[in-house]
Amino acid sequence: MCGIAGQLGRDPGAFAARVGPRLAHRGPDDAGVWQDAGACLVHRRLAILDLSPLGHQPMASACGRWQLVFNGEIYNHGELRRRLEAEGQRFRGSGDTEVLLAWLVSRGLDGLGALRGMFAFCLYDTLERSALLARDPHGIKPLYLRRGPGGSLAFASELRALLAADGEAPSLNRQALGRYLATGSVPEPDTLVEGVQRLPCGHAASWRQGRLTLQPWGALPESLVGAAGVGAMPAAEAVALARSALEDSVAAHMVSDVPVGLFLSAGLDSASLLALAPRGLHTFTIGFQTPGAGGFDESGPAARIAAHFGAHHTPLNLTADQARQWLPAFLASQDQPSIDGYNTWCVARLATEHGLKVALSGLGGDELFGGYPSFRMVPKLRHWRRLIGPAGPPAAWLLQRLPQGRRARLQRITGLLEAPPSLAGAYGCFRGLFSPAETGRLLAHWGLRPDPAAAATATDRGGGDHGGDGEAPGGREGVAWLEGTRYLRNQLLPDSDVMAMAAGLELRLPLVDARLQRRLAPIPAALRLAEGKQLLARSVPELPDWFLNRPKQGFRFPFQLWLDDPASPLALRLPSTPRGIDLTPWYRRWSLMVLQHWLEVHIGLSLSPAPRP
User: Where is the Glutamine amidotransferase type-2 domain (predicted)?
Assistant: First the structure.
């Protein structure tokens, strides 16, 4: 796990000096730079595999022709090493970077499908003056791209690092701002900075003589594309298949030359990882010492399940005062604004304070096994919208004129009624932040409406997917597809990466694994996505009955209590908003507060009322 950056097709100048320090938190163990007259590669290392200097990057091939900078982990590097050794390849060290370099030199783009792991890399050919860049199928590891003069290309693991590269004042991407207001995160491949994009997940980029070509290489795993399974499958067979696949994924994610910990909630996902992992893990949980926060606090059951499996458990009992004191450091860690991420920032800080460099997380289990309330509610919303049919827009017009009441929810329902029936529309109503009408009013209030052509493009792309995803399938499998391609991809994964790396911690996700999900894909959706994550629970019989029979309680921070309590205000300024925008829900206020802070710091923009013409 590391931070990488580079500039191709341009004199390096001060690129390394400007960008390297901005990535230091991602790799406190080592730093490296390679450059010549027309290229520069920068690396910061967090040493996890092969702790010796043989893991130093940028890493050169034995012949000296190729240079590699790589961020992530290749979990099957041992298997690939053996295949390469059988072909006559010899290795000096024991890490995955040297294996990845040899594999790419040997196989190129065609070799990406054999990689199991999370990764973003750039392989530079010093002879041809060309480069291959790629991201893993889920996009667990980020890679930001910015094209420059003369066809040059700059890239980095974080947006902020690219903004420091040349000192140019960044411009706001207004289309991306609108999509942030709709969802609470910035959907890939966009960023809030005009001219900077993320390389889409599962894509490779070839750069040669100033020309950049993107192409998909790793299709989204079948289980997140709504595969319903082929034919029938006995429940016992599904359980055995899931058990085998889960054991394999956990074992692969435990490969490390340093100790591995676990982020433990009282939920089924992280407890299942604990049950399947070797005994003696160091586990970490957040609890809350806030009056009235009992419904948020999972620290008791988490401590009990940790003791059941012999874990060394460390809780963090967070108060509103502590949350307020840490807020400036959290905000300074945001690469892009989001309504999520604070929990990961806190628990990652706790883990590194106890000497850990690597931790597992149960992220992805709800998407994979149907755990969110959305699996039940979104199909119901779509069915309700279909029943209303052509009466939807008139009904929306009437709702707009009712007494305000629970305005935030009412606005989202109005947005659902105004649009044609679809699962994506129902999903947006359920998970959305501000309705389309509210988003338009906010942007107009700040004088930041995108131009009509950009807005039309966003609508064509579904308002939350990157190009090519299309419309969702139906039913629970369609919700799984939406949760994977929107919530997981655009919010949970980016937040988890940047907030864990802010503390210099590698976060591994055994339930967000392409091989695991391809193995589970033949299981019919009715079994895999059965309500209550029954398949996962039955696949891990080590979990005690008292734990399995507890009511499901998603992990939440008591932000509503903190933001509503005048005695413990969080030190953030709320931007100006037009009348009629309901800011009662905490997540609406929080999203605007972190947005305001980010725009002021990184773009020099304040969200204030636009001057009247």
Answer: 2-210
